[in-house]
Design goal:
Elements lengths: L4 E4 L8 H15 L5 H20 L5 H15 L6 H12 L9 H10 L3 E6 L3 H9 L9 E4 H4 L6 H10 L8 E5 L2 H10 L3 E5 L14 E3 L2 H11 L1
Parallel strand pairs: 1-2, 1-4, 2-3, 4-5, 5-6
């Protein structure tokens, strides 16, 4: 076995964050009396994505992101809200969402049967990610899940991967593989840490960045084929 330790990103790789976000936002906007929910979502979703990018780049802290994103979104529609209160309410609804992509559970099950050790490696809020995993069909496949808030560091920081290495018995970079959809978080982080990377790119997006993954796959079967070829 060429690789042994598989580090999986969760959102947009195994867990369907878009579905989770849609359900949680619908619940939040219903209880807060927002009438034009589609307009709110259309503004909030790209705002939220851009703020997470700023977090990756070190331009924004996690606390700022969590406590201000709804303040900014509601302000756009002329309404002042308590950012912390909204954050807690949204977290409550989001933490109840465990939607996984079709085939994710089967993929992990096959990888376990082949002898790989599976780990989650995710940026996010501990309370949300832990509860989403508990509501999902994939939690039992992971030996351990590493969440940025718990680790005190985040992807793509090298320290995130160094801490993972210290937590996994027998871990070596040469036998580890980071798998995820984000070039700027998963691939850059793995590359910088000296770990081979797989860019999970189901939409076949063009890579216009200088970040180069070790491998690229478009679906779970291609990932399985890649790993079996490396054995």
């Amino acid at each position: 076995m060429y690789y042994k330790y598989l580090l999986f990103d969760l959102d947009h790789t195994l867990l369907d964050f878009a579905a989770a976000e849609e359900h949680a936002l619908t619940q939040l906007l219903a209880v807060t009396g927002v009438e034009n929910r589609e307009a709110f979502k259309a503004y909030y979703k790209p705002l939220n994505q851009s703020m997470w990018k700023e977090l990756e780049q070190g331009k924004l802290s996690k606390t700022e992101l969590i406590n201000t994103r709804f303040v900014r979104a509601f302000a756009h529609f002329g309404r002042a809200v308590d950012g912390q209160k909204m954050a807690l309410l949204y977290q409550k609804y989001l933490s109840q969402q465990g939607q996984a992509f079709v085939g994710a559970g089967e993929l992990l099950q096959q990888l376990l049967a082949l002898g790989y050790e599976l780990y989650g490696a995710t940026n996010g809020v501990t309370y949300i990610q832990e509860n989403r995993l508990l509501h999902s069909p994939i939690r039992s496949f992971f030996k351990e899940v590493f969440i940025s808030e718990q680790m005190g560091t985040k992807k793509p920081e090298t320290l995130f991967y160094e801490k993972i290495a210290n937590r996994i018995v027998g871990f070596t970079k040469e036998r580890a593989l980071m798998i995820g959809d984000s070039l700027t978080a998963d691939v850059k982080g793995g590359n910088d840490a000296g770990i081979d990377t797989v860019w999970y790119n189901p939409a076949s997006q063009a890579n216009h960045t200088p970040i180069q993954p070790t491998y690229e796959v478009r679906n779970y079967q291609e990932l399985l084929d890649l790993l079996q070829k490396k054995e």
